[in-house]
Design a protein that fits this description.
about 190 residues
């Protein structure tokens, strides 16, 4: 009987920690949308019909010195990726006036980094599959990682359409991968340059 009570208590604690992380991520998205609204005259949160936050996901600290002799598959490195410490990179938001790519307030300048397009293939792809989460693997914009129903996979734009792929399809050079991608522990810094 004590084991059952212990398992129930453990489940409640785990669920609480999980919902707390989701709540923190939602707060960061709301904060970015509020900042965008205060800095961008044409952007209005209430006009957003759909949005997809994109998070940085980096390598766990204990694996940052690992190297590979050949480019691994995503499934081979999934265990080394730190999904417990996510940081919001940007939000793709659809509004009547177009697709907004909201990247955040500059660290050294009183302005907000964003772009607005009439259409966006990445947004269209995300809107068609409705992912649970979207990540920039290792903080790299060209390594988009999709999570849907507990399954994660990389995507790449091929012939103007996003399709599932592997790391080697995006970066075939193992030296570059070992030096610049896998050990990455760099967080985003939006620096204004003139």
């Amino acid at each position: 009987m004590k084991r059952i009570y212990f398992l129930i208590l453990l489940s409640i604690v785990s669920l609480s920690a999980f919902t707390q992380q989701i709540s923190e991520l939602d707060k960061s998205v709301n904060k970015m949308m509020e900042q965008a609204e205060s800095y961008i005259p044409d952007f209005h949160r209430k006009s957003v019909t759909a949005s997809y936050p994109i998070f940085y996901v980096l390598t766990k600290k204990e694996y940052r010195k690992m190297t590979f002799s050949q480019i691994p598959t995503y499934n081979q490195i999934d265990q080394y990726i730190d999904f417990d410490h996510l940081e919001l990179e940007c939000v793709l938001a659809k509004a009547p006036e177009g697709i907004w790519d909201l990247s955040g307030k500059y660290d050294d300048y009183d302005s907000f980094c964003y772009t607005k397009r009439a259409n966006d293939r990445l947004f269209d792809y995300l809107d068609s599959i409705k992912p649970d989460r979207v990540y920039n693997l290792f903080g790299e914009f060209f390594l988009k990682l999709i999570e849907k129903n507990g399954h994660r996979y990389l995507i790449k734009e091929i012939n103007k359409q996003y399709q599932p792929c592997e790391i080697i399809d995006i970066e075939p050079d193992v030296t570059f991968f070992n030096t610049w991608l896998f050990p990455n522990n760099t967080k985003k810094a939006l620096i204004y340059t003139n």
